[in-house]
């Protein structure tokens, strides 16, 4: 996705003999999207990446059932009340989902086993804690506020340093920066709210020795555990445009207007059937008579899933929303600030307040989101009526 990168040792030409110190050949592996017609990377393994010795079906450990949002209503989920069993992969609690994307929450302090999601890209947002992401491409040290984008099929694992909380966005396709941020050749344009320098990717090979190494593989059919003859983290070098990377929400450069700007200015990534937006601390809208919080709106084609990750939410005062909350404002419902919030922010500006500290990660989906058991188990049942108080 992002731009050309080379890590470790690669031969001068692709698909030529590249030999180990003992004279044997390194084994090529091309990881490519859209059937050789889109971005790819070429990896060089010490051992055959095809050598598996066992395959076994695995029961899905967590509840994957989804229910329609009926009766239709805005929802408030309190992730602060969730504790998951398992690791950052097997311990994911399904909050919401549809045919395009699944949104889950996980908290864990234990390393995950090796994992490959072959259904689509993942974007994992670290709400709290530090975690080392390890993969065939190398490692990325990640922490609070990082989005880690993991391309489809990347074998990886999560190694927390203490307790870590994440929101996992699992796509049924590829997650990329919005096209309008990029030149026709893929470079970030000057108006984009972030650029190549803000992306962190593996810098060196991660060479791990091991035999009979299990990898949990997720496909449309379910979960399988494949046992590899040799450890898949045996790549001495790779190059290309396809690799995992991290982007920290603090590196997002908010775009501010004189009057209130709608969420597309906060867009960070896009995937098939959804977008991801980052709401970051920024100056308030500066027209002398501006109302610097959202107007009531009805996104007739979207469900809006908002994870409040930091700061103060003056527009939501009286709603029960706080850090750790998730609101779901579905199509079919008009939403906006709670009663009194507009007057309160106008008063605050009159007193000299010029900035907002709000921080949130939003996923807008273009098809309705169904509700998972994780969300229903931490729902605040009074939320829907808070505009009518
Ligand atoms: Fe909204």
UniProtKB/TrEMBL annotation:
Binding site for homogentisate: 313, 335
Source domain of life: Bacteria
Chain ranges of the Homogentisate 1,2-dioxygenase C-terminal domain: 279-387
Cofactor: Fe cation
SUPFAM superfamilies in UniProt: RmlC-like cupins
Signal peptide: none
Record carries keyword Oxidoreductase: yes
Annotated Fe cation binding sites: 297, 304, 335
Record-level GO BP terms: L-phenylalanine catabolic process; tyrosine metabolic process
Listed name of the protein: Homogentisate 1,2-dioxygenase
């Amino acid at each position: 996705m992002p731009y050309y990168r080379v890590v470790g040792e690669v031969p001068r030409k692709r698909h030529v003999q590249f030999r180990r110190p003992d004279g044997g050949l390194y084994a090529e592996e091309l990881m490519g999207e859209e059937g050789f017609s889109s971005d790819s990377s070429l990896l060089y393994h010490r051992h055959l990446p095809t050598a598996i010795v066992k395959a076994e079906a695995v029961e899905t450990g967590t509840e994957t059932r989804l229910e329609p949002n009926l009766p239709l209503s805005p929802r408030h989920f309190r992730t602060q009340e969730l504790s998951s069993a398992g690791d950052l992969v097997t311990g994911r609690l399904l909050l919401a989902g549809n045919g395009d994307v699944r949104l889950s929450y996980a908290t864990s302090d234990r390393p995950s086993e090796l994992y490959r999601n072959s259904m689509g890209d993942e974007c994992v947002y670290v709400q709290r804690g530090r975690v080392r992401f390890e993969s065939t491409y190398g490692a990325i040290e990640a922490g609070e506020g990082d989005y880690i984008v993991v391309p489809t099929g990347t074998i990886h694992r999560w190694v927390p340093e203490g307790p870590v909380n994440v929101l996992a966005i699992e796509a049924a396709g590829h997650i990329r920066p919005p096209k309008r941020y990029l030149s026709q050749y893929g470079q970030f344009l000057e108006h984009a709210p972030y650029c190549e320098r803000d992306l962190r990717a593996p810098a060196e090979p991660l060479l791990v020795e091991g035999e009979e190494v299990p990898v949990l593989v997720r496909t449309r059919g379910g979960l399988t555990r494949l046992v590899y003859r040799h450890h898949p983290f045996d790549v001495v070098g790779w190059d290309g445009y396809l690799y995992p990377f991290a982007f920290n929400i603090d590196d997002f450069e908010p775009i501010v207007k004189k009057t209130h700007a709608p969420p597309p200015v906060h867009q960070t990534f896009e995937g098939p059937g959804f977008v991801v937006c980052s709401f970051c601390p920024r100056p308030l809208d500066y027209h002398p008579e501006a109302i610097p919080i959202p107007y009531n709106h009805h996104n007739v084609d979207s469900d809006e899933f908002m994870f409040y990750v930091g700061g103060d939410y003056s527009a939501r005062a009286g709603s029960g929303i706080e850090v750790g909350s998730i609101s779901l404002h579905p199509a079919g419902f008009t939403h906006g600030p709670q009663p009194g919030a507009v007057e309160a922010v106008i008063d605050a500006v009159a007193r000299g307040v010029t900035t907002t500290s709000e921080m949130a990660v939003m996923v807008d989906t273009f098809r309705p989101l169904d509700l998972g058991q994780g969300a229903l188990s931490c729902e605040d049942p009074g939320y829907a009526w808070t505009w009518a108080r």
